[in-house]
Design brief:
The structure is a homodimer.
Chain A: H1 4-11, H2 15-22, H3 30-42, H4 49-56, E1 61-67, H5 78-92, E2 96-102, H6 104-109, H7 112-119, E3 123-127, H8 134-141, E4 146-149, E5 158-163, H9 165-178, E6 184-188, H10 194-209, E7 219-221, H11 226-239, E8 245-248, H12 251-263, E9 273-278, E10 291-294, H13 297-313, E11 320-323, E12 326-328
Parallel strand pairs in A: 1-2, 1-3, 3-4, 4-5, 5-11, 6-7, 6-8, 8-9, 9-10
Antiparallel strand pairs in A: 10-12
Chain A binds a DNA duplex through residues 3-5, 13-17, 19-20, 23, 27-29, 32, 47-48, 50-57.
Chain lengths: 338, 338
DNA sequence: TTGTATGCGTTATCAG
DNA sequence: CTGATAACGCATACAA
């Protein structure tokens, strides 16, 4: 509650002097400085960041804009882990984080720029955007620096962090191909996700280079949803009795597919091999444990924040980073029976 | 970037009028109001919450203070789910959330009051505090309304949300007792957690009422840590060959204990029954699926925020809520062999 | 080395 | 119904 005014009065100096003393300016005598600091301590003074923001036009605040922050995300801990990385990163740099959750409806009510201006955030990290979210175009038009997670869009003030989804998918499919699989189903996310495009690209690329022709009827969208994945997996299994493997664009969907497989009376990995994507915690605990492409979610968040803060301070900073993925071989994949 | 000043100039009125027109005051003619709104829209005006905070002394901001926000928490999604509840709740009421992560070290650098004052948060929700965190006493002394998650401390401006941990533990133990278990190990968290005290209380209460005497050597702290729980479980199993069940104060620790049990060549639930606490997502996927006491974490967050906002608006608001828990019976418990 | 005056964007008071 | 003015807490250009 104490302000520099209070300090000034007690210390018998002007507010200007207090301000400068506390901010470490050199043009203040050691004597007054120590006196001011003394009084500040006595009064348990702490600077009002709000007032400072107003006058400096710098809030030292970063907006964390999460699309669909909800319980559904609880199974795959993606958002949480990314957040941990961001949090560690920003506190290193003495920024604070303000959390916005958004969704399609909210985006109609308040524009991106409004959202940012109201709270005077210096920059934004956006997680979970869809390609058709209205905010995405606004971000590109806006001057406010923004780093996107898993959306590879670049602009003057827009950068991104992603993992190498094409290569990740290639590793997954190559692993299956090496095990002798030829008929490999692909359960993708949805068309609004860039990662889905990328993972499909990897899937097709690897099959092609293995001399296997793409069969559209082996591919379906599971909407990144466990249940939906189960449904489409069941459908594919019914249509293709001779399928021997699945590649799923997320572990969560792999869980759904596993259920479909097991309900058909098929065994994993003896009858059907399956590979997921993400390496969520659950992946280690399914039976059998799930082979998957691991993404370092914490690192994604950490790097995203670093990138953003870099952009905030110097403009010709690199604006994108692609992290490597890793294939984690577990029990859900095996050589094809013959 | 547009301010009310800009609007005033263009609309040909004073800033006062603009302010009142935009804030829906009645003492402004319909004509000027619509004119002002028109101009505001043209200029894509959005109010500067920072300036407003300064003058109103109300930030419409709630601090979410999380102790040890890190990857370790990724397995039990506690914090994430609580956060989702809080987020939904505060956005209902048009508050924003600012995220602070703290730990023992950080608490020495900046006091609780400083942290709050700097960002002018109106209230705080605190998750993951330990009984010996210095912030805890500061919270009690502070005037800033605060709601604690799972720490049952009450004061003039302090409330809490928790679940009925005593009863939850009792349900767990009663379930085991009903299955015929008499020698029931208890892997607790640590002494700095209130929930640990409570769960122990429930454990002892239920055993006593079943006529079973408490054996201290069957009880150990697993520090809410999977590995530590595995270690102490192994220890107890070695010392007590005739133990038939475990009650663990968290699912995460139950995972550790399960590993210890299985490594001993014992089967779950045939040889050893086990009950956890929390109902984390993983609990459904272990083999066998884990019987556990379910806490509605989302609801905890939701209620916490509601409580806090209530305290912010009227002072004689209820300050605490205890939510019910639920025993979820799964495959990890069975009648005792004889 | 220190102090005075001004402004950041908004709301509130009070007079017209 | 409207407007001039002060105030919130802080930083800074300028003056002394």
């Amino acid at each position: 509650m104490a302000t520099i005014k209070d300090i000034a009065k007690i210390a018998g100096v002007s507010v200007t002097t207090v301000s400068r003393a506390l901010n470490g300016y050199s043009d203040v005598s050691e004597k007054t400085r120590s006196r001011v600091e003394q009084v500040a301590k006595e009064l348990k003074y702490s600077p009002n960041a709000v007032a400072r923001t107003l006058v400096m036009n710098k809030s030292k605040t970063i907006g964390l804009l999460v699309s669909d922050l909800n319980r559904a995300g609880a199974k795959d801990m993606f958002t949480y882990e990314v957040m941990c990385g961001i949090n560690d990163s920003v506190s290193d740099e003495d920024y604070d984080l303000i959390l916005f959750s958004t969704n399609h409806d909210k985006q109609q009510v308040k524009t991106y720029t409004q959202l940012c201006q109201e709270r005077q955030v210096e920059g934004v990290i956006m997680q979970g955007v869809r390609m058709n979210d209205t905010y995405l175009t606004e971000i590109m038009d806006s001057q406010i620096p923004c780093v996107l997670i898993d959306v590879e869009l670049e602009g003057d003030s827009v950068g991104y962090v992603s993992t190498d989804n094409v290569f990740g998918a290639q590793m997954a499919v190559k692993h299956l191909v090496n095990l002798g699989h030829k008929k490999i189903g692909f359960i993708n996310g949805h068309d609004q996700a860039l990662v889905s495009k990328k993972r499909r690209e990897g899937y097709e690329k690897e099959l092609t280079s293995a001399g296997i022709t793409i069969d559209e009827s082996l591919i379906a969208n599971g909407e990144f949803n466990e249940l939906q994945a189960e449904i489409v997996a069941r459908d594919i299994l019914t249509k293709h009795q001779d399928i021997t493997a699945f590649f799923c664009a997320s572990d969560l969907m792999a869980l759904g597919a596993m259920r479909a497989i097991q309900q058909k009376g098929l065994r994993i990995p003896e009858d059907i091999s399956i590979v997921g994507f993400d390496d969520i915690t659950l992946a280690q605990y399914t039976s059998p444990p799930l082979t998957t492409v691991s993404q370092d979610k914490y690192q994604m968040g950490y790097v995203a924040a670093k990138l953003l803060i870099g952009m905030l301070t110097n403009s010709d900073q690199a604006r994108k980073t692609i992290l490597d993925n890793q294939l984690i071989k577990r029990g859900s994949t095996a050589p094809v029976k013959r």
